[in-house]
Design a protein that fits this description.
Layout: H1 11-21, H2 31-38, H3 42-54, E1 58-60, E2 67-69, H4 71-101, E3 104-111, E4 114-121, E5 137-139, H5 144-151, H6 155-161, H7 177-190, E6 193-196, E7 203-211, E8 217-226, H8 232-250
Antiparallel strand pairs: 1-2, 3-4, 3-8, 4-5, 6-7, 7-8
Helix pairs in contact: 2-3, 4-8, 5-7
């Protein structure tokens, strides 16, 4: 629905979204039903539907030829829910983590074989904006938080996230499948993941998974710092801080 007081500048996009909006009221729907409801030519409706189908936003029944909402819609809605809920819940605790650690703190969610960074919080001493990483992605296998999340998945799901060639981003990136599986096993045993300059040279990270009420890793928290500041003692301290506040976040998921 068009927002009051705003101007629709892309009419073709408006029509496409109006077609998609028809599925809120009823599913499945055919070309004729949508055409009559919106007053659009059948050829236009068909082109819009097939485009949404190609992108995964719609699925088509092979027998009836009618359409229903696809999994891409579910992915969007889930991302919105997690973004709103996870960010709202985690941000106050992330500020405490940043102040106690003196380093930047990230909130991430898993998507396919990557993690997406939702939030970043810097300690007061750094005075840097936290929005610069919003939406950025990184491979799970070379990030501390990605490894932590992988370690809390079942074997089948974990395998699906790390299959295929492992690209080296630095000379420290683990590209051998067996070594990566061992690293994930160790991560699970100690309860936190490490990025030993595997994604970016000169940067180390420690991360933990955030487990929701159903026992699934829904997100993760990580602390990132220049490698010279990441001594073994600091890593242990940061892991403890993340576990402490991570448990508080998990109680609210």
């Amino acid at each position: 629905m068009k927002e009051v007081g705003t101007e629709v500048k892309v009419k073709s996009l408006q029509k496409a979204l109006e077609v998609l909006g028809c599925f809120v009221e009823k599913q499945p729907l055919g070309v004729t039903e949508i055409s009559e409801k919106l007053g659009l030519y059948k050829s236009n409706v068909h082109n819009i539907l097939t485009t949404f189908k190609a992108m995964g936003y719609l699925e088509q029944d092979p027998d009836s030829g009618k359409f229903r909402l696809g999994m891409a819609i579910f992915t969007l809605s889930r991302a919105l829910r997690e973004n709103l809920d996870i960010s709202r819940i985690a941000l106050p605790f992330m500020r405490r983590i940043a102040d106690e650690s003196g380093e930047v703190v990230y909130l991430s969610i898993p998507r396919g074989d990557e993690v997406i960074y939702l939030e970043a919080v810097y300690p007061e001493s750094q005075k840097l904006p936290g929005s610069i990483v919003t939406g950025e992605r990184a491979k799970m296998y070379c990030t501390s938080v990605g490894k932590a999340i992988l370690s809390r998945m079942d074997e089948e799901e974990r395998a699906s996230r790390i299959q295929g060639p492992l690209t080296a981003f630095t000379e420290y990136t683990i590209t051998d499948q067996r070594k990566l599986e061992e690293e994930i096993r160790i991560t699970g045993e100690r309860g936190y993941g490490l990025d030993n300059m595997e994604l970016m040279f000169g940067i180390k990270c420690v991360g933990v998974a955030l487990i929701n009420h159903s026992g699934h890793p829904e997100a993760g928290l990580s602390i990132s710092a220049p490698s010279l500041r990441m001594s073994e003692e600091k890593i242990q301290t940061f892991a403890g801080i993340l576990h402490h506040y991570g448990q508080e976040i998990q109680k609210r998921l």
